[in-house]
Design a protein that fits this description.
Layout (H helix, E strand, L loop, with lengths): L1 E8 L1 H5 L4 H14 L3 E7 L6 E6 L3 H14 L2 E8 L2 H7 L1
Antiparallel strand pairs: 1-3, 1-4, 2-3
Helix pairs in contact: 2-3
């Protein structure tokens, strides 16, 4: 299953922004710890600071990873379960 996460930096995250590369590696490590794979991360201009796309085998794995990521304290998270357009078009 694909999951999109919308991320905003917390004050702690902004404070550690020069360490962004290390923080993104931690995020990737958290996903892998729960059997997931971060497919892409984008820095954005607008309401969110970053958008990440990851894949997990189960919703429970995705949830566990999000809780762990939130515990790091760098981000406020909003998650979305994503379905590809082929699935959507064959469902409607």
């Amino acid at each position: 299953m694909k999951y999109i996460t919308l991320l905003n930096l917390t004050p702690k995250g902004r404070e550690h922004l020069p360490e962004a590369k290390d923080i993104l590696l931690k995020m990737t490590g958290v996903a892998e710890q729960f059997g997931g794979k971060v497919e892409s991360v984008w820095a954005t201009v607008g309401h969110y600071d970053f958008i990440a796309v990851a894949e997990y085998a189960t919703p429970e794995d995705a949830f566990r990873a999000r809780v762990k990521l939130a515990e790091l304290g760098y981000f406020l998270l909003e998650g979305l379960e994503a379905f590809d357009m082929e699935f959507f078009l064959t469902t409607v």
